[in-house]
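Students often ask why inverse folding is considered easier than folding. One informal answer: many sequences map to the same fold, so there is more than one right answer. In these notes we will look at a single instance of the problem. The structure comes first.
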């Protein structure tokens, strides 16, 4: 990548936005330009009614090696407003987002992937949070999300040793949704995103919101809180269209309202 090329690329593929971290010579390390670019891509994904899902990947041989430490020591901070590190770890998109991992996703790179809703990884890829090896802390959400997605002791081992695990092991543990052959992670992620994008956009956003927020809801309040989110979806034009299309045995035409 030359200095004139953007640090983050976006490409629309029908109803899916492909977001590519474009610093292959720096192992797609996150600097301020990457954080700003990913944040802008999140805005684009959520702001365009024609888009239903996103896929984030890395150019070259790997997904992302985490924070650009050379930029960090010069005072550069790769955060973007309330979206946090890399423009995604504190607030990602409202719409479904998939990480497509080739080669490696380590340190902040894994934290970017963990901020997504689903993960596709190529066989042989390495995933880990090695921050402790540099007397740093995985403060971009890894210590929050890994214990929710893995057995606690596995998450603890990853955090305290700093050693990575392979994509195959991560798949066995449920961290990775789908395995791909090397070089095919983006293709598999796009297949998954396309399947998601066929569904009603209001229902997708509501389902994602409930799954994320319900972790903190008391069981006694679950249905009441869920109802506040689902009622507008059930009363929407898209809900009527979905039922009508089913009865008429045709694909639905979503309008997002």
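Output (designed amino acids):
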């Amino acid at each position: 990548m030359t200095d004139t090329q953007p640090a983050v690329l976006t490409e629309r593929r029908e109803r899916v936005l492909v977001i590519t971290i474009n610093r292959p010579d720096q192992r797609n390390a996150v600097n301020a330009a990457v954080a700003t670019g990913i944040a802008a891509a999140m805005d684009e994904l959520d702001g365009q009614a024609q888009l239903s899902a996103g896929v984030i990947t890395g150019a070259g041989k790997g997904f992302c090696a985490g924070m650009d430490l050379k930029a960090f020591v010069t005072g550069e901070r790769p955060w973007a407003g309330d979206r946090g590190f890399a423009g995604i770890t504190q607030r990602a998109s409202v719409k479904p987002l998939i990480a497509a991992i080739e080669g490696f996703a380590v340190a902040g790179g894994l934290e970017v992937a963990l901020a997504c809703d689903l993960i596709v990884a190529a066989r042989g890829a390495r995933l880990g949070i090695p921050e402790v090896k540099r007397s740093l802390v995985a403060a971009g959400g890894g210590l929050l999300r890994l214990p929710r997605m893995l057995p606690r002791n596995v998450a603890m081992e990853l955090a305290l040793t700093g050693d990575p695990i392979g994509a195959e092991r991560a798949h066995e543990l449920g961290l990775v949704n789908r395995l791909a052959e090397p070089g095919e992670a983006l293709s598999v992620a796009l297949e998954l995103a396309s399947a998601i994008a066929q569904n009603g956009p209001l229902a997708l956003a509501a389902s994602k919101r409930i799954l994320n927020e319900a972790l903190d809801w008391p069981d006694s309040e679950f249905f009441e809180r869920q109802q506040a989110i689902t009622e507008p979806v059930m009363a929407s034009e898209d809900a009527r269209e979905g039922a009508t299309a089913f009865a008429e045995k045709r694909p639905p035409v979503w309008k997002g309202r």
